[in-house]
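G., before I forget:
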Amino acid sequence: MDTRKQKQSDGQSASSVRDRTSAALPQGEDRDTLISYYHQMLLIRRFEEKTGEMYTRARIGGYCHLNLGEEATVVGFCAGLEPEDYVYTNYREHGYAIGRGIPPKAVMAELFGKETGVSRGRGGSMHLFDLERHFMGGYAIVGGQLPLATGAGFAIAYRGSSEIVACQMGDGTTNAGTFHESLNLARIYNLPVVYFVVNNLYGMGLRVEQGSAVSELYRKACAYNMQSWRVDGNDVLAVRDAVRKAAELARDQHEPSLLEAVSYRFRGHSVVDPDRYRDKEEVQHGRDEDPVRAFASRLLAAGVLDEQTLQEIDAQVQREVDEAVKFADESPDPSVEQFMQGLEEYVYAPDTPERKGN
Amino acid sequence: MMAEITYRQALHDTLREELLRDENVLLVGEEIGVFEGSYKITAGLLKEFGPKRVVDTPIVENGFVGMATGAAMLGLRPIVEIMTINFIVLAMDQIVNHAAKIYSMFGGQCPIPLVIRTPGGGGQQLAATHSQNLEVWFAHVPGLKVVAPSSPADAKGLLRTSVRDNNPVIFLENLALYNIKGGVPDGDYMVPIGKAQVTKEGSDLTVISYSRMSAVALDVARRMEEENKLSIEVVDLRSLRPLDYETILNSVRKTNRVIVFEEDWRSYGVGAEIAALIQEYAFDDLDAPIKRVASLEVPLPYSKPLELATLTGAKQLVESINEIAPRRRRSQS
C-alpha cells in the first residue's frame, strides 16, 4: 500500500474554548473577511433560533434540523470553497445554503412552503436547492447525497473543468454503504470531491463510538487510500483552512479526500427532539464552547472588532432575519390550481431542448 | 431500408450511434468494458470509444447508479447497465429516492437525463435470485419512465428516445429476447415513450402484453388465427409508465374481451393495473371478465420441471384464450 497517502493528522488538539478565545489571529487575515465570517456565523445562529421559533408556532412543517452550535463548521466550510464549486449536503443544511449565498429570505420562504422558496415550496427544510449557486441539494436519506456528489465530481473530471465538489454529511453517515461505495469510486476514478464529515458526536441519539467501530472518523479514509484530516469544528479559520487544503488537492490533482470537523449540536436532533439521551453537563459544556461567542471574543481581543461594531452587526443580523420572516410570511403559497392542471410538468422535465449542462 | 438483425445487435448499434452523436453520452456499468458485457451488448465499444466513454465500475449498484445520477445533474447523459434486474434492488434508494425525485422535489431546476438498461426474465435455470421481473416496482413511481421493447425495431427506437429524454428511464430488456431477429429501420428511427402499438389487428379478443410476453403473444395469435380462425388483437404496451390509455381502451371497445399476459407475478402486477383501468373507463364494453395470465407466485425454483411449471408462457395463454374467446370460436382441444 502507498503509505504516502496516509498522512492523517489530529488537528483537534488545540481546542479548549479558552485557547480559541485568546488565540492570536493568524498573520495576514483580512479584517473585512474576518468580520464577514462573524456576520455569517451570527446570521446562521439567529436564523436558526428564529426557525425553531417559527416551527413551534406551526409556520414550518415536517422535520426541521438546525445548525445551532455548528456555525463555525458551516461558515468555515463555505469559506474554503470557490463560488463555482458544487455543494451537496444532508438535511441539516439551512446554514450551508445561507453560507453559499442563498438569500435568507429564500431559505425561510422554503421552510414556510412558499412559491418564492429556493425550491419553490416543493422541498422544504430538508431539500433546499439552488442550481444557479451550485447548491446541489439538501438530501434527507442518510448517505443519499454521497453517490450524487461523486457523480458531480465525475462530470467535472469528464469535462476537464476546474470546479470541485464538496459533500457534507453527518457522523452517522460514515457507517452507511454509500459512504464506502462513494469514497472507493472517487478514489479509483480520481474525482475532485471533498467529503466533509460533521461529527457532532451523535447520530440522532446514538453516540459515535456506539455506532462506529472507529470513532476517529477521518481514519476510515485509509481503506480507500485517501488523505484525511480531523479539524476543530468550533474554529472557523481552522475549518476554512482545512477545506481549502482539501479543495486544492481536489482541484489541482483530482484527488479526493476526507475531512472530519468535530462539532456539537446545541439542541436535539430535530426541533421536536427533547434531547433526553445526552448528559446535561455535556450539553452545558457544549454550549459553553459556543463557537460564535468564542470568535467574537477572539476578534475583540485582536482588535478587529470593538463593542460598537459587534452591536451594529447584531442589529443588522436581526434585521436580515426579520426581513426573511416577513418575506416568507407575505409570499404566496404555490397555486393548487396550477399544480393540479400541470401534474405532468411537475413530475417530468420537458423533452426539448436537450439540456447541455451548466 | 430494413436490416434483419438481433435484439442484441439493435441495442449495441444504437448505443454506438448515440455515443457517436453526443459527447455527453457515456456508458456506465459492471463488466461492460474489458469483459464486453455479461450479455455482450457493449462488445467492442471500449475499444472504439475508450475508458472515458465506456466506464467499468466495481460491484456497487447503488453507488454507480447514484454516481450516474449525479453526473446527469451536471448535464451528462449516462446510460447505465445493470447486469440483471435482480441487482437493481441494491440501487433502489438512488433510483426511487433520488433520480425519480430530484427534478420535482427541487422545484424543477435540475433534469436527470439518465437511462438504466437492465434485462429481466426467467427460464434459464438461474433460480430465485436471478430470474425476476421487477418492472412494476418502477412503473409505480412518479418521476420514472419505464419502457419494455419486445422487438429489435422497438429496442432501437425506444433506446434512442430514452437516451434523448431528459428524465430517468428504466429500459427493460429480457434475457430470452437478446437472440430474436427482426427488421430494424435504418437511420434516426425513434419510438415515442408512452405509446403502445397494436402489433396485430383482430376482432375476437385482445391480448395486452409487453416485453418478451408480447412477442410470445404475437406468435400465439398468429398461430390461433391460422388454426382456429380466431381473430386476436395484440397490444404491445412498449411503455409501462406512462401508460397509453387510449390504445388500450380503443382495443377493448373493439373486441370486448381482454387478457393481460405478463411474465411477472400476478398480484399487484401490470395486469391488475390494466384491469382496473379498463373497468373504470370501459366497463360497459366488456363481454367477459378480464383475465390475467402471469407466473406462479413463488420464488422461481432451479429444477427444470419446476421452473417450467412456474413460468407462464404460450400454453397458459392459449388456455386462457380458449376460456374467454366467443364460444363459437373456441378451440376443441
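The first helix of chain A runs from residue 17 to 22. The longest strand of chain A covers residues 193-199.

More on Monday.
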